[in-house]
Amino acid sequence: MGLHKDNKLNKLHDLLPEGVAAPSKWLAEQGYSRQLVRKYVQSQWLQPLGRGVYARPQVKLNWQGLVLGMQHFAHSAFHVGGVSALNLQGYAHYLPLGGDDKGDSNKASSEIIHLWGQGKAPAWVKAVTLPETLQFHPRQLFDEPAQDVGLELIPAGIRDLSLQVSAPERAIMEVLYDVQGDEHAFSHALELFEGLTSLRPKRVNALLLYCRSIKVKRLFLFMADQFSYAWTTRIEKQSLNLGSGKRVIVKGGKLDKQYLITVPERRNQ
């Protein structure tokens, strides 16, 4: 291979860390034609992971490498959220990440990674086989003024790349969104909530104010009332629109008269 191609390959090694997925569109934007990519595959300098996505062959790809490729190379508007974000930040390490996903034996056997965002995930993501299961939540949980509130970057452990994740204040609200009709999911969320001893009141209030889900707001306030943490006393309840009417959270549960939600009877004291 000539000097020019050597330089191109060296540049690719600089641009693409080991263990990170690279979509073909990004490779083309960096000046790597289909023909050159094909040659790199034939020479085993690149490994195809599926249609339209590649990685360097030295390291087996895991979910972090795929999400880094989505965020940094495809600029996909999905972040690690919910219980997965809490786990990454040390708030849920003793609880199963897939604890609120039941009824699917295949999912139960693998770690479930929750990704929140808007729009559709890139098509090439579905072509990649991972040891983990990615669960996408393409929902807009917060109005525009709070779209980016509670999103943070944490080191990915790969060069200087960072993963965008929900901070604990946002992550627990994403967890609460998926609590519906099931006492197990409610209890799992409450266990997570119990570990949130030092949330930031200013951020909590901004997220609650612009949260689109009446259910999430009522559940959050109900759970906050169960604990005597300093930050819970600074929630600005009077500024929140909690809607009207009852919400069935746990089927067969007892109605909490303050927030008009059904909860497990032992929690309604």
Q: What would you report as the Rg, rounded to the nearest angstrom?
A: 22 Å
For the sheet with most strands, the description reads: 3 strands, antiparallel
The helix/strand class is: alpha+beta
Q: Which ranges are low-confidence, i.e. pLDDT below 50, for 5 or more consecutive residues?
A: 94-109
Q: Record the strand order, biggest sheet.
A: 1-3-2
Continuous helix count:
10
Average pLDDT value? Answer: 90
Report the count of strand segments.
10
Shape: elongated
What's the multimeric state?
Answer: single chain
Instruction: Indicate the proportion of strand residues.
Output: 5-15%
Order of helices and strands: HEHHEEHEHHEEEEHHHHEE
Number of separate domains: 2
Q: How far is it from the N-terminal to the C-terminal residue, by CA?
A: 75 Å
In which range does the helix fraction lie? 25-40%
Topology:
Blueprint: H1 3-15, E1 22-23, H2 24-29, H3 34-42, E2 47-50, E3 53-55, H4 63-73, E4 78-80, H5 82-88, H6 105-108, E5 112-117, E6 133-137, E7 151-155, E8 162-166, H7 168-177, H8 183-194, H9 201-210, H10 214-224, E9 254-256, E10 261-263
Parallel strand pairs: 5-6
Antiparallel strand pairs: 1-3, 2-3, 4-5, 7-8, 9-10
Describe the protein.
The structure is a single chain. This protein has about 270 residues and is an alpha+beta fold. Helices cover about 35% and strands about 15% of the residues. The chain folds into two domains: about 5-55; about 65-265, no CATH class. It has ten helices and ten strands. It has a three-stranded antiparallel sheet with strand order 1-3-2. A three-stranded mixed sheet has the order 4-5-6. A two-stranded antiparallel ribbon has the order 7-8.
